[in-house]
Amino acid sequence: MTTRVASHAGSWYSARGTTLSNELDQWLAQVPDSIDGTQLPVPGARIIIAPHAGYSYSGPAAAWAYKSLDLSNAKRIFLLGPSHALYLPGCATSKHSRYATPLGDLVIDTTTVKELQETGEFDKMSTSADETEHSLEMHLPYIYKMLSQSFKSAAEYPPLVPILVGNTNADTEKSYGKILAPYLADPTSVFVVSSDFCHWGLRFQYTYYLPASPSSAAASSSGGHSLKKRDKDPTDPLIHESIGRLDKLAMDAIETGKHDEFLGNLRETGNTVCGRHPIGVVMAAIEILEKEEKISDEGKGKGKFKFVRYERSSEVEEISDSSVSYASAYAVL
Predict the structure, then answer these.
(1) Cα-Cα end-to-end distance for the chain
(2) What single-letter DSSP state applies at residue 155?
(3) What's the gap between Cα 150 and its chain centre?
(4) Whole-number Å distance between alpha carbons of 146 and 97
(5) Listing from the earlier edge strand, what are the strands of the sheet with 106-107?
(6) Looking at the predicted structure, is the pLDDT value of residue 148 above 50?
């Protein structure tokens, strides 16, 4: 029995359980009790996309996804996040039996992890790789908080299945989607997908800009180009407005429910959505269930993501500036 330490506590978020709990409560309270007339949590919303930056940046945005999440039937929680430091062509699971948070430990579903390992398609993270990566850890306090509100005691909390997703391509995303589809079809499985959106700026080596104003080309990414350090700061539109349009195009592509549509958007704009691969795996899994007719037709938009919150770390106006975008979404299944 080994436990992964909360390696980013005290830097990316508070290491003090009481302080952290109060912050999470505050951010959740800032989210309205209903969205578009639907009471939260959204019934059947057992898949979410939420950001993974330091809580001072993305904590409020993530609250929108977590308050939408329906845990009423949850018996197992899959957590998929992108690999930022470890080169990984496929996916990897944790070798630990627990993940620590300042609020308490989350138990790993070692039975499901073993099943995934037996497919021969999953690597195992080393302790160093596991503790270096932040994309999974940044969701743990929120998961613990939501479970504490949904279950009577920690002994009843559904176990966690952490999956680190590497630099996959379209085919490998579809392959992993096929492996995970039976789990996704299980109404007691919850899926949390970890992703930030556009990382814009010279420091991210991404300065793509859409020059046309939103009124003339709102739904198009054509005519874009990368800004250079020596270029004059554009004003029509402002850079942050262009970033917003780039992210809107990516979110719209995700909301279509078509994996290839999302991949096409990324090829066209190069948008630096760091969780593109875990998003792609889950979208591929949903499409497989649709083809197998395991997703019923009743209810408009079933199996499709709906974005409910979008924020940026700053409003970029100068080429020398930078920002990271944060978006939250849910899908009913």
Answers:
(1) 34
(2) G
(3) 21
(4) 20
(5) 3-4, 98-99, 106-107
(6) yes
Q: Is the pLDDT assigned to residue 20 strictly greater than 50?
A: yes
CATH number of the domain where residue 281 is located: 3.40.830.10
Cβ–Cβ < 8 Å for 328, 308? yes
Q: Could you tell me the residue range of the domain that residue 322 belongs to?
A: 3-332
Task: State which amino acid sits at residue 237.
Answer: P
Give CA separation, 162 vs 20, 78, 257, in Å: 22, 6, 23
Report the b/e string of 162-189 with b at 16+ CB within 10 A: bbbbbebeeebbbbbbebbbebbbeeeb
Count structural domains, the chain.
Answer: 1
Q: How far is 154 from 107, CA to CA, in rounded Å?
A: 10
Amino acid at 13: Y
What does the angle CA 108 – CA 114 – CA 119 come to, to the nearest 5 degrees? Answer: 135
Tell me, yes or no, if the pTM score tops 0.90: yes
Q: Is 138 exposed, middle or buried (0-12, 13-18, 19+ CB in 10 A)?
A: buried
Could you report the per-residue pLDDT of 219-251, keeping only the tens digit for each? 566 679 999 999 999 999 999 999 999 999 999
**How many other C-beta atoms are found inside a 10 Å radius of the C-beta of residue 111?**
10
Q: Locate tokens 């999974």: which residue? A: 136
Residue type, 119: T
- Of 245, 242, 250, nearest to 271 by C-alpha is 250
